Hints:
- By secondary structure, the protein is an alpha+beta fold.
- It folds into two domains: 2-104, no CATH class; 181-454, Beta-lactamase (3-Layer(aba) Sandwich), CATH 3.40.710.
- 35% of the residues lie in helices and 16% in strands.
- The protein is built from 13 helices and 15 strands.
- The strands form four sheets. A six-stranded antiparallel beta sheet has the order 6-5-15-14-13-12, sandwiched between helices.
- A hairpin with a 3-residue loop joins strand 13 and strand 14 (416-421).
- The model is unreliable at 11-21 (pLDDT under 50).
Amino acid sequence: MKSARYALLSLFVLIFAGAVFVWLNREALHVGAASVSQSLCAATFVSHVDPGRVFEEEQRPLLGGIAWAAHYAIDRAQHEVHSSILGVFRARSIYREGLGCTLVLGDGPPPAGTLSEQAVPDGFGPNVVNPTDPALRAALDQAFAEPDPAHPRQTKAIVVLHDGQLIAERYASGYGPETPIWAHSVTKSVTQALIGILVRQGRVRLDQPAPIAAWASPSDPHHAVTVDQLIRMDSGLPFDETDGPVNLATHMWFRETDTAAYAGSVPLAHAPGTTWAYGNLSYALLSKLIGNASGDTAVGAETFVRDALFAPLGMNHSVIETDQSGTLLGSGFMYASARDLARFGQLYLDDGVANGKRILPEGWAAYAHSQTLDTGYGAGFWTNLVNTGSVPVWDAPWGIPQLPKDMYYARGAFGQYVIIVPSEHLVVVRMGLSVHNVGTGIGDATAAIIAALHRPAPGGFAIR
């Protein structure tokens, strides 16, 4: 009997400890389920890659010790993915043609609307461009190298444009020139371009207080925040993407139906214009400005993105997903092929002109990499202007010191890069799933690409 009592007591203690753990971590468990649902929905219906592989390479490492409790089901007929953790914390994401995947919170009906898609061949042609130059091939080898198999880099794509020409590319198995890949915070740089288009059209001014309805009162501390400060991340809003699954950014993405409304409700941590702090909240609000200019619907916003940016550049394999309210998730939920992102980088290399048509305001590219305060951040892009110190909170380097000083770049989680080097007329895109907190090696690989372009070719001339 005594043994039975001890066993019952032990069981009770375990159950109680488990209940306390779940209660204390309920936000993280909600976020984990939503992350699985959203990621695997896009893998299945947007990228058309193996969702099981994406779960193993991306979501399982992120879930860590709770991965055993995660389950998902893909309903291909209804274009939905359902996920759960511990069978209690549930999430559902739905795919809508032309709009990507949307996380649906609650039991209500999914958002309405679709946008027709057409299969448009990639403008660079159907074949992968394998470089004939051995130095370029070696640079691509370096980009795909796995120096530590226990912590894989999982590079999925490398694309190199030089003088506007596609000179080299490589893809992992299951990926190709037309595969949309999650760009994460590279999306912010695309949002910066969309704001630039609104500036060129005279619909937004950089120096004006951001026209956010919730901030309209002059007595509101947010009222003085300008559009420029939102782009530069010195609006005074707090640093919102910290380590771990629970922070202001993950709450906004995975627990709120209206991301911009939530971002607008967050108190300022600093006086506007005085302190830099990484800001997904800022880019949620910029996304709202794009929505305001395009009808405040997912279809309207995506139509604007297509007509104003994607179509003129030939970015035919790209989509920015939206939240449940219809606002673009312009802080980090764009899917794009590596070639499309290279085209985007080339737009900035060409000062906002594509195919002879001005897309961005004159000088917008220079604005993009003009320094914010004393940081290595510009205006929607990272710069190479500061190679000492580190990004606050993250303890990560500002720039890529082995590359030219005029280099600037878009960067996203897990190793997404669009590297622009004006002095070399070069754009390098790297996409991958480097979730193991290891370097991607893209800085050294890009340096090797530059060295290859300067290497004398047979006959004594440089390749470039």
